[in-house]
Structures are given as C-alpha cells and as structure tokens.
TrEMBL record:
NCBIfam families: PRK09440.1-5. This is Valine--pyruvate transaminase. The keyword Protein biosynthesis does not apply. It comes from Bacillus swezeyi. Residues 36-415 form the Aminotransferase class I/classII large domain.
Length: 429
C-alpha cells in the first residue's frame, strides 16, 4: 500500500548522504556471508576499566532505597536534580565557570540534543525566513544534516588546507570567509561545530572558538559546540584543550564515548534562554532521558571516576590506536602516491586524504568493500557544500575508525594500500 508520509516524514526516511552509506554498511556487515574488517564503526570499544566503573555505579543503585522511584516514576524534563546538581558542582569547581541549574539540560543522548537545538533555532521563523545552521569549518559530523526537520538546513565554510609534512596535513579555519558569511547572510540561525572534530580529529584553537563566538554574539545566534570527544569526558584529545564556556555558547556533551551509549545521556550547558527553549521541546518530544542512566552518571561524576577513567584509560587507548594507524600507513602505503593523514589531535578517527586520487571516494569504498574492508567515504561530511570545494578535495578523503583491533587496523591498511595503488595505476594506463 502507498505510504502517505508528510514532508518531514519523507525527509526523515530518505537514505541520502551518510545514511545511505551507513545503511549499506549495516546490510553488508549483517549479511554474514563473509567476514569484513570493519574500519567504519563509530561504536566505541568496551574497555574493562570503563565497563567496571558503570557496573559498580549500577550495583550501588540497585541497593539504593530510592531505586523503585528512580525507574518507576517520571521526572523533570530538564533532567534529574541529582545529575543537574552534580554537573553544576563539577563544572563550577573544575572550570570556575559560574553556572546554575537553569544552565543545564540533560537530553536523551547528544544526537537528541542537536535535534532539539537545530530545530529550535533553525528552519522557518516568524519572519518567514528559512534559517540555517552554519558549520565554520568543513568537514564536520554528517549527523547534523540528519537531525534537521527541513532539507538543506546545514551549510558550511570550506577549510583552508595546510600541508605540514610529506604525509601530514591539517585543516585551518577560513576566518575571513566565515566572518563575511556571518555578517552578510541574514539566514543564519545557529552555528555548530564539533571539537574534537568528527571526522578529521582537528581541534579548533581556543582563540578561534572565541572568534566564532564573538561573530555569533554580533548576529545574535547560539554557538553549539559538540564536545562528544572532548575533555573532561570522554577526553579523547591528544593535544591540550579545555572546554570554553561563555554567554553565547551551548556546550554539548555526551556520555556515549565514555562507555554509556546505550543509556542515551547528553548534557548541555548554556545560557538559560537557550536551555529553556530546548527543555520545552524535549518535554514535548521525549519527556526526558533515561533516569537510570542519569543516576549512574551523577555518581561517577561526583566521585571523580568519570573524568579519571576518561583521561587515563579512554584517551590512552585511542591515542595508541592513532599511532598504530599512522605507523602502519607509513610502512604500507605506496611511495609514489601523495597521501596525507590529518594531524591526530583527537576523536575516534583517522582522516586520510589521497591527493590527485583518480576516482571518487564512493568508488574507493566499493572497491575496498569488494576486498573485505569497510571504511566511510568522506564526501558526506561536507554536507551539501560539495560544489564549492577546490580540486574535488571532498571526494579524495576517507574516514578510518580507530575502534578496530590492532590486527584489523594493520590488515585493513594493507588492503587499502594495495587497492589504492591499483586504482592509481589503472587510471594512468
Ligand atoms: C560528533 C558527534 N556528535 C554527536 C554524536 C551523537 O552521540 P550520542 O547521541 O550517542 O550522544 C556522535 C556520535 O557518534 C558524534 O560523533
């Protein structure tokens, strides 16, 4: 029968961009006909110390006299008092940032947080103008396009490419391009960025963040800083960075990469005017996040274990994986190919750029799949800004996950090096 979907229903059902690739990846991996080396997954590794921290938090809760009311009663749409007070205490003490409970919202994961924020601040407004969410430096998390209820809401500024050595590059913020867009385009409703960045691991400097926040203040729009990989948890940063709080920033955190993706906990800290709008939206759409997860989170935030385990275990684990990826690429990739790995500053991924690659990233994805290796093609992280990048750069990149076992990273890169060499050679002949 013909399914009659609304425009929003259709948009949410579309398998375009990264959803198409992710859908394909899931089908391939679920097929079970052959074994694949999966270098695509965003699923975090289950680390023993992290797992035992959550297990003991849950065990204490099971003994708690309040347990029945924790799981059997509804609560506030801002989040539980316990977790909100813990967040206020922890962040005020650690960063000397003056926050109250009105500045905190607990959401059902940070994906939900971005859903609430993007659709509260972007889309058609009372002035009938379609407001967009602007990414100051592409590439960035493809999931932002998915959360918008209307099409083509996410736009971005192409980066400046800086080559650091024979095999390392880094994206730099195009400050002038960003500022000009902010000052001339009345259609910007919010600015959004991940720091550390998914997919490339770039960490924007504090000075750049303040510069972006100042432009947002001038335009009177919020700056959403997606801190899914940032310190103090999960702390997957390999260079120094601190979170930045001010009156224009909504600081968005997630417990997923600190071992709790199943409980769906996102945390926003920001100006009360923005938090209140998002709380109303959450109250209508989800009521609140899992209360069990929130109580577990409050206990490990209070006793300091969440920050300690993140810094000592989670960060160290992924930093070692990045080093392994880099060394394996250096040993394995063909010498006559111009390849560059983005400087490893943080996150769960390596981002590889193959300059002058003779085919598109989607073709490389297919060839690797045929050879038993799954990666994520890079172009969807450029959202629909694809026509504006120089030299087809957005089709020359792939994302490699650091969540695989060491042996799989080595074998996967071996296959990648062989397939890439063959594809360059076929083109030359
Ligand atoms: C940059 C970024 N932001 C947000 C999310 C969503 O995370 P969650 O909804 O599990 O908190 C992810 C998930 O991988 C991510 O990579």
């Amino acid at each position: 029968m013909n399914l009659r979907l609304s425009n929003i229903g259709r948009k949410m059902n579309e398998k375009t961009g990264v959803r198409a690739v992710m859908g394909d990846i899931q089908e391939v991996l679920a097929g079970g006909e052959r074994q694949y080396i999966n270098l695509s997954a965003g699923n975090p590794m289950i680390l023993p110390e992290v797992s035992s921290m959550w297990k003991s938090a849950l065990a204490s809760l099971l003994e708690d006299e309040h347990f029945p009311s924790i799981i059997s009663q509804y609560g506030s749409s801002y989040g539980t008092d316990e977790l909100i007070q813990s967040v206020v205490r922890f962040f005020s003490e650690r960063y000397q940032f003056d926050i109250q409970k009105e500045n905190v919202l607990i959401t059902a994961g940070s994906q939900q947080l971005f859903f609430l924020a993007v659709n509260s601040f972007c889309g058609v407004g009372s002035d009938s103008m379609m407001k967009k969410a602007l990414i100051p430096m592409l590439p960035d998390y493809s999931g932002y396009s998915g959360v918008a209820l209307e099409r083509d809401i996410i736009e971005g500024i192409p980066p400046i490419i800086s080559i650091l050595d024979d095999h390392t590059f880094r994206y730099e913020l195009n400050r002038e391009g960003f500022l000009e867009r902010m000052r001339t385009d009345p259609h910007i409703g919010a600015v959004i960025l991940s720091r550390p960045n998914n997919p490339c691991g770039n960490i924007l400097s504090a000075e750049h963040v303040v510069f972006i926040a100042d432009a947002c203040r001038e335009a009177n729009v919020p700056l959403l800083i997606d801190s899914a990989y940032a310190p103090p948890f999960p702390a997957i940063n390999f260079i120094d960075m601190e979170p930045i709080f001010n009156d224009q920033i909504i600081h968005c955190m997630s417990l997923s990469k600190a071992g709790l993706p199943g409980e769906r906990i996102g945390i926003a800290i920001g100006p009360a005017r923005y938090i209140q709008a998002m709380e109303a939206f959450q109250s209508n759409t989800a009521i609140h996040s899992s209360r069990l997860g929130q109580y577990m989170a409050a206990s490990v935030l209070d006793d300091g274990r969440l920050a300690a385990v993140s810094q000592n275990e989670v960060r160290a684990y992924y930093r070692n994986k990045f080093t392994l990826l880099k060394e394996t690429l250096h040993c394995t990739m063909p010498k006559d190919i111009k390849w560059y790995l983005h400087k490893g500053e943080g996150s769960l991924f390596g981002w590889l750029w193959l300059e002058d690659f003779p085919a598109a990233d989607a073709e490389l994805y297919e060839q690797l799949k045929a050879n038993g290796v799954i990666i994520v093609p890079g172009s969807s992280f450029f959202h629909h800004e694809i026509g504006h990048m120089p030299h087809a750069h957005q089709y020359q990149c792939i994302r490699i996950s650091l969540t695989a076992a060491d042996e799989d990273i080595k074998r996967g890169i071996d296959v990648l090096a062989r397939v890439v060499k063959e594809m360059y050679e076929q083109k030359v002949m």
